[in-house]
Amino acid sequence: MPEPALTIASLIRDPRLQDACSRWLAGGRCELVWVDPASDPVEQLDRRREEFDAVLLEQGAIDPQSYQALSDLGLLLPAVVVGAVSGRIEFHDAEVHLPPDQLEQLSYSLDAAVSRFLRHGLVAASGSPAGQTPDTPDRWKLANRLKGRLGFVGVFYKRDPSRFLRNLPELESHELIHSLERTYRDLLLSYFRDPAAANQALESFVNTAFFSDLPITKTVEIHMNLIDGFSKQLKLEGHKNDFLQDYRLALLDVMAHLCEMYRRSIPPDAPLAGLPVEVSGQSSMA
Fold first, then answer.
1. Residue 135: pLDDT above 60?
2. Which of 227, 236, 257, 280 reaches 20 to 30 Å from 210, CA-CA?
3. For residue 56, what are the β-bridge partners?
4. Residues 37-75: pLDDT tens digits?
5. Which residue has the higher pLDDT, 190 or 120?
6. What backbone phi and psi angles, to 5 degrees, belong to 31?
7. Strand (E) or helix (H) holding 45
């Protein structure tokens, strides 16, 4: 029996961006419902609070006061923010950021947003658990609903094998790899000059790498190819390139974050010897 679809409130202002998001989620387990960000999104989300499991946001489409109002109402939701990786927080600390030229990763980012939301155990401004306020009916308990649909500890150890990189159609696989290359390039370009932006790019890369079961060897290959490209460009321009060795720290950061995600993917009470190969993460390293 297929898992129930997650219903995503899409507060995207740009019609072309909305169409692109819809295209990359078409045929998946996420149902996208457009909510006009120019027509009192707080009232709409509050009125339809039982309808949505997560939210897709366009960077800058909603003003900070609206985000605060949502928080005051206990309407914190798993969130993916589409826009430039700037290091800025739009909605809450567990949100996931994705540039508009990397929408191939959108479905994986939504998985990551739900997992981060559950793991962080967000608390609304009122002090109530995320998705619950004193006046909220019992049936509106978002965290419990998500856990019921996705597993007790979220989606960390319930990745969808049909969306693993090795199981995708060839064209879709190539598109995802190229998208990850762009994400990793964003990470390298901001790694030393803008740590906050670099952290968002790193999280975006690691989230997709984990949920798509990207081979560790492919991660290293992406790093080496980009560094090699930077090196050749610097030589052509007559600059020194020895400082590029320092960017090994970025690769170590990525590996450390991936290891942590794989560690969290193991159910707390599961014996390691009995875990399926794909759950333990070893399929990526074989």
1. no
2. 227
3. 10, 80
4. 888 889 999 998 888 989 999 998 889 999 999 988 888
5. 190
6. -100, 125
7. helix 41-47
42 vs 227: CA distance, rounded Å: 45
Buried b (16+ CB within 10 A) or exposed e, 244-257: eeebeebbebbeeb
Residue identified by tokens 């500890």 is: 153
- Burial label for 277, CB within 10 Å (0-12, 13-18, 19+), is exposed
The tokens for 67 are 């985000």
Residues 6+ apart with CB under 8 A from 268: 153
Beta bridge partners of 31: 7
Annotate 169-219 with three-state secondary structure.
Answer: CHHHHHHHHHHHHHHHHHHHHHCCCCHHHHHHHHHHHHHHHHHCCCCHHHH
Q: How far is CA 222 from the centre of its chain?
A: 19
Q: Which pLDDT score, from 0 to 100, does residue 160 have?
A: 81
Tokens read off for 38 = 């120019």
pTM (two decimals):
0.81
> What tokens does 244 get?
């590029």
Q: What is the rounded CA–CA span in Å between residue 210 and residue 226?
A: 20
Contact present, 213 and 284 (Cβ < 8 Å)? yes
Supply the angle between the helices 248-264 and 216-236 in degrees, to the nearest 10.
Answer: 160
Q: In what order do the strands lie in the sheet containing 96-98?
A: 30-34, 6-11, 54-58, 79-82, 96-98
